[in-house]
Design a protein that fits this description.
The chain is built from 7 helices and 20 strands. The protein is an alpha+beta fold. The chain folds into 4 domains: 103 residues, no CATH class; 87 residues, Immunoglobulins (Immunoglobulin-like), CATH 2.60.40; 98 residues, Immunoglobulin-like, CATH 2.60.40; 95 residues, Immunoglobulin-like (Sandwich). β8 and β9 form a beta hairpin. α1 crosses α5. Keywords: Membrane, Transmembrane, Transmembrane helix.
Length: 415
């Protein structure tokens, strides 16, 4: 323990603010520790002094005087370490909740999707482990009051234990530790809010399914994804049974490519295909994870999928998203002319353009400048094309010299 405390001191963690924080965050613990130190130090001092005829009066006096300071340092060292460890665990939880909310939350709305939970295990030991539960409310205006349930699983379908918190109150923007509970070491866990302070019934299974599906997507990407490049292997699927249905989720772990995806999933039991499902084409943004289909409940032990990107539909979907962000609905405006591009499976760039105006048309060319390290490395001019009001089309395909970091485009109308 002295080595651990010394390590904290040398790392610069044991500052004056940290010591003051001990008084502020746990005054009862501080006085209990010092009470124990005083009691034990007094017992040791009396013991040393009563044995002065054995130790010698000078040595006994010295040890008696040192008994309380040594006990004080030892017990407060334990307290400092425990509080420091708890603080580090909380930092990890808060950081992960913030990261998860960036991919799973919705900053444009006030709702349950902006409530995040993180659970930290405290190591592993025979018979079980401690689970530290943290929560955050990333809504800007809406407070939250309700309960949280955590279900531990040994295997995907076998529940080990259910923990229900006391009523939790979270102000907008607040993050905090909710509770600590002991349970068996689990293969996986899910968590869901009971906002009405009652069991959610059917909704509980839907929320559990979503949570477990997203856990599966994250695990698949960690084990089989391509971390350093854009790849179709970063499009992952998961399928989980709820009480009544089978829900299919998809995740796009690519950093740059939004996609419209055509996909087929084969469900297997004992190595044989028991059902083939054609998933309707869907658009998925970078980093997005969402439910893409619900079918009848199915018993299976494995599944595999086949993915074909629809580059044209992807381009058109990106144009629609761009119009929602920067367009001028109901007006005739230059901002209603939009362009985007995608990389296809042959590493070619496919350019798409749209005219969201109701009356204006365009006829001419487009110039696209590709940048890397803030310098233009390639300039591409399209063949002449025409865009009628409300029209979308692919306007050009070319092979880039490198992968661009950014781009600029210019509309060049015919004179």
């Amino acid at each position: 323990m002295p080595n651990i405390v010394l390590g904290i001191v040398l790392k610069g963690e044991l500052t004056l603010d940290f010591i003051v924080g001990i008084y502020q965050s746990s005054p009862l613990g501080f006085w209990i520790m010092n009470g124990i130190a005083l009691l034990l130090g007094g017992v040791c001092a009396i013991g040393f002094w009563t044995n002065r005829h054995v130790l010698g009066e000078k040595k006994a006096k010295k040890r008696a005087l040192m008994a309380y300071p040594v006990c004080f340092i030892f017990f407060n060292g334990i307290m400092v370490y425990v509080l420091w460890e708890d603080g580090e665990r909380q930092k990890r939880a808060f950081s992960r909740m913030t990261a998860e909310n960036q991919t799973e939350g919705n900053p444009s709305t006030e709702g349950q999707e902006n409530l995040q939970v993180n659970i930290q295990r405290d190591g592993s030991r025979k018979g079980g482990t401690d689970y530290y539960v943290y929560a955050a409310n990333f809504n800007k205006k809406t407070p939250f009051e309700g309960k949280l349930k955590v279900v531990l699983y040994d295997e995907p379908e076998e529940e080990l234990k259910t923990f229900t918190s006391k009523i939790v109150k979270l102000k907008p923007g607040e993050k905090k530790k909710i509770d600590v509970f002991e349970g068996p070491w689990s293969y996986d866990f899910s968590r869901y809010w009971t906002i009405d302070r009652q069991d959610l019934g059917k909704d509980r299974h839907q929320l559990e399914a979503r949570d477990r599906a997203i856990n599966s997507l994250n695990y698949q990407y960690k084990e089989k994804g391509v971390k350093d490049s854009e790849s179709m292997k970063n499009i992952r699927f998961s399928a989980v049974n709820t009480k009544d249905n089978l829900e299919i989720y998809a995740g796009n772990f690519n950093k740059d490519n939004e996609l419209t995806v055509n996909s087929k999933i084969e469900f297997l039991r004992k190595g044989k295909i028991v059902k083939t499902v054609q998933v309707p084409a869907f658009y998925i943004e970078t980093g997005e994870k969402k439910k893409v289909m619900t079918i009848e409940k199915l018993t299976f032990d494995d599944y595999r999928w086949y993915v074909t990107p629809d580059m044209k539909a992807t381009g058109f979907a990106k144009l629609d998203e761009g119009f929602k962000k920067v367009g001028k609905p109901g007006e005739e405006s230059q901002k209603n002319f939009l362009m985007t591009y995608n990389f296809n499976l042959n590493n070619e760039v496919e350019m798409f353009a749209a005219n969201f105006n109701e009356k204006w048309a365009f006829k001419g060319k487009m110039e696209l400048k590709l940048y890397k390290d803030d310098k233009v490395f390639q300039t591409v001019t399209t063949p002449e094309f025409e865009l009628k009001p409300g029209e979308k089309k692919q306007i050009h395909t070319f092979i880039p010299n490198a992968v661009p970091e950014s781009s600029k485009h210019f509309w060049i109308p015919n004179k």
